[in-house]
Design a protein that fits this description.
Blueprint lengths: L5 E5 L4 E6 L2 E6 L2 E7 L3 E6 L4 E2 L1 H10 L2 E5 L5 E5 L7 H11 L2 H29 L6 H20 L3 H17 L25 H23 L18 H24 L8 E3 L5 E3 L1 H16 L1 E3 L6 E3 L3 H14 L12
Parallel strand pairs: 1-5, 2-6, 5-7
Antiparallel strand pairs: 2-3, 3-4, 7-8, 9-10, 11-12
Helix pairs in contact: 3-4, 3-5, 3-7, 4-5, 6-7, 6-9
Length: 343
């Protein structure tokens, strides 16, 4: 089993990364502030970032360390990876599936069905934990609507109709998401999903969390030899990592939504960890971003029992395990792809 390594986060604009042998050296305004063996890391994720020396970038590429330039709203600006690994026959079969709508639809249904299943589990937890909540009936009604959407997924005849079912279900889910925020604070209100840009704290947390999951998924797909840009559900678009977005569907509720609800309700993140821009966009403060990343890293180290493997793995390895299972299914080693389903 793959070992979960660390990520290096660069959050300050005056920091650069250089190389000293097989070590990455971090400088702040020309002053050395850290030095780390490259094999210590799996990813380098850069926010508000100025530069990396060609030698440091070459070291990362040679060592299989992914470099991602990420905005706070979760948008990936650029990624740098080394040589593509894996069997070319695996990618050829992936491309054949992508070109066959009936085969693509079968995979897409699994991704969307798992997304709805996990979203229902999030609602179930709210129904179980807050039975006296005055809006509990709204959660129960939303659950029924999502259960109905799962039935519609099974009978969807094409990708377009599946997209409509999934979109309606997402709107139902986020319509009641605010009920799951039990923290009594006007600063963490939520009236619906707002992405470009997020204009409130909860949406800022969700957007960045989805971006962090996407980085993990893209790296995982690349590691097992699949092409993250050729998907089965999300259609081809220049620059869009469609297969990564496909796999993200099943992981959003478990890896991102539950994480956001946890750190908000436990008051691990505060209103002053954010700054509202003149444009209305809500961004993290410098200290707030560091706090968020520390909480995220701790989450990735937690152990969870994988429902298909029936063994404990690090939380941060879930995308890798799912990518591995997807690759095995495409190769024909598994009859049916087993998406990640929350216990």
């Amino acid at each position: 089993m793959k070992k979960l390594l660390n990520s290096l986060y660069i959050t300050q604009a005056d920091m650069t990364i250089g190389r000293d042998g097989t070590n990455l050296v971090v400088f702040q305004e020309s002053e050395k502030v850290g030095q780390f063996p490259v094999q210590y890391f799996e990813n380098i994720i850069c926010f508000n970032y100025t530069g990396m020396s060609p030698a440091a970038m070459a070291l990362c590429i040679e060592s299989g360390v992914g470099i991602t330039y990420l905005r706070q709203n979760g948008k990936i600006l650029a990624r740098v990876n080394g040589r593509q690994t894996g069997n070319v026959l695996l990618r050829r079969e992936q491309f054949r599936i992508a070109d066959d709508e009936s085969r693509s639809l079968a995979y897409a249904k699994l991704f969307v069905n798992a997304k709805l299943f996990n979203s229902i589990k999030v609602l179930d937890r709210g129904i179980r934990d807050y039975p006296e909540h005055p809006s509990i009936d709204r959660l129960s009604k939303a659950k029924v609507e999502l259960l109905d959407a799962r039935k519609q997924v099974e009978t969807a005849s094409n990708l377009s109709s599946l997209l409509g079912i999934e979109g309606d279900a997402a709107r139902t889910y986020f319509r009641e998401f605010e009920i799951l925020i039990t923290r009594s604070s006007e600063h963490f209100n939520f009236s619906g999903r707002i992405r470009r840009p997020p204009t409130d704290r909860v949406n800022a947390l969700l957007s960045l969390s989805y971006g962090m999951v996407r980085v993990l998924v893209e790296n995982a797909l690349t590691t097992v030899g699949l092409d993250p840009f050729v998907g089965f559900y999300h259609q081809d678009r220049p620059g869009r990592s469609s297969l990564a977005l496909d796999m993200m569907e099943e992981l959003r509720a478990y890896m991102a939504d539950r994480f956001v609800l946890s750190i908000v309700n436990k008051r691990q993140i505060a209103e002053n960890d954010f700054v509202q821009q003149d444009s209305g966009a809500m961004l993290f403060s410098e200290d707030g971003l560091k706090k968020y990343l520390d909480l995220w890293n701790r989450r990735l180290q937690r152990e969870v029992k994988h429902p298909f493997l029936e063994k404990k793995i690090n939380y941060g390895l879930i995308p890798f395990v799912q990518a591995m299972l997807l690759a095995r299914t495409i190769r024909g080693d598994l009859d049916l792809y087993p998406p990640f389903l929350m216990n």
